[in-house]
Amino acid sequence: MSPTLVRHQLPHSGSMRCDGPHPPARSRERTRDWAEIQERMLVPLYEATYDRLGVGPGTRLLGLGCGSGLALLLAAARGAQVSGVDADETRLELARERLTPDGMPEHTRVVSGGLEAAAPGDAPFNVVTAFHPVGCVSTVEGLTTSLTAAAGLAERGSAVVLGGWGPVERCATAGVLRVAQRLADPPSDYVVGSAGWLPSGRDDLEDLADRAGLRPDGSGRVACPFGYADMASAVRGLLSTGLFDAALEVAEQRQVEKELAEALHPHQRADGTVWMPNVFRYLIARTR
User: Fold this and answer.
1) Which residue in 110, 186, 130 sits closest to 12, CA to CA?
2) CB within 8 Å of 170: residues ≥ 6 apart
3) Are strands 226-228 and 274-276 parallel, antiparallel or unpaired?
4) DSSP labels, 66-130
5) What is the distance between the alpha carbons of residues 16 and 32, in angstroms, rounded to a whole number?
6) For 229-260, what is each residue's pLDDT tens digit?
7) Chain-wide mean pLDDT for the chain?
8) Cα dist from 122 to 2, 32, 81, 105, 132, whole Å
9) Residue 58: pLDDT above 70?
10) Each residue of 141-180: b (16+ CB within 10 Å) or e?
11) Rounded distance, CA 116 to CA 111, Å?
């Protein structure tokens, strides 16, 4: 099965994103910040689930919300055949650069279309990943639909990995993300379904699996500290997640950056680096 990357409108989902369209220049800048600063923070989550599932030769993996492709690249390095879908074309372009560099075999296929374009030609998928669904207000309905469709492209009993934030008390970044929540959703104007961040509930992943018709089959927690070289990098990295975009729609960028830096200040160490310990949770479910 050839590596495949597909642009697919996963409603309100992507690589930690739950935001809408962006001006091209800003979108490209945020994509680079995501790829160069933020995306690596979740490598422990990717590696832990790949280790648990034994991802390697023989694995045919579909990544929902694959973003700029780091998780796919790590799976491919283990020998897996990988395909990815994402709603953000700028991130998908970077994923193509990473996964289909010059010198790759001619049969490597990069396509643009719906989720059906990711369907394997020779054998169904046996692993599906959705690493970043939980933590955005408006992801559940769209992701449920996408998971149900993806399960139809997988073998019976295939693993489906769902990822999300761990308990608030074990995620130092939660306090920082409340800035986005406060700026974007004042209590008097709050509308369920608006983009932004909310704490994960204890059973969010299990509820999502149930809605998608999946059977839970184990879970785990992984330490994913967010570490940055300096305050400027921390601000850029967190803005690249998309979780502050709703705040930027109602407040000036200077104000958002200022309040974000203030929230990050307690996590800045004497040498100028910024460090926030976090725990992420994952659920392994199975297709029926």
Assistant:
1) 130
2) 277, 278, 279
3) antiparallel
4) -TTSHHHHHHHHTT-EEEEEES-HHHHHHHHHHHS-TT--TT-----S-GGGG--SSS-EEEEEE
5) 15
6) 999 999 999 999 988 988 999 999 999 999 99
7) 83
8) 9, 34, 12, 17, 28
9) yes
10) ebbbbbbebbbebbeeebbbbbbbbbeeeebbbbebbebb
11) 11
Residue 263 reports pLDDT greater than 50? yes
Beta bridge partners, 128, equal 62, 160
Round to whole Å and give the CA distance between 263 and 50: 33
d(CA 276, CA 268) in angstroms, rounded, equals: 9
Beta-ladder partners of 221: 281
Structure tokens that stand for 168 in this block: 């608030």
How far, in Å, CA of 207 to CA of 141, rounded? Answer: 12
Per-residue pLDDT tens digits for 142-200: 889 999 999 999 999 999 999 999 999 999 999 999 998 888 865 434 333 344 566 67
Residue 34 CB neighbours (<10 A)? 27
Instruction: Quote the longest CA-to-CA distance of the chain.
Output: 56
Q: Exposed/middle/buried for 227, CB within 10 Å: 0-12, 13-18, 19+?
A: middle
Best CA proximity match to 196, nearest among 139, 279, 144:
139
pLDDT level of residue 4 (50, 70, 90 thresholds):
low
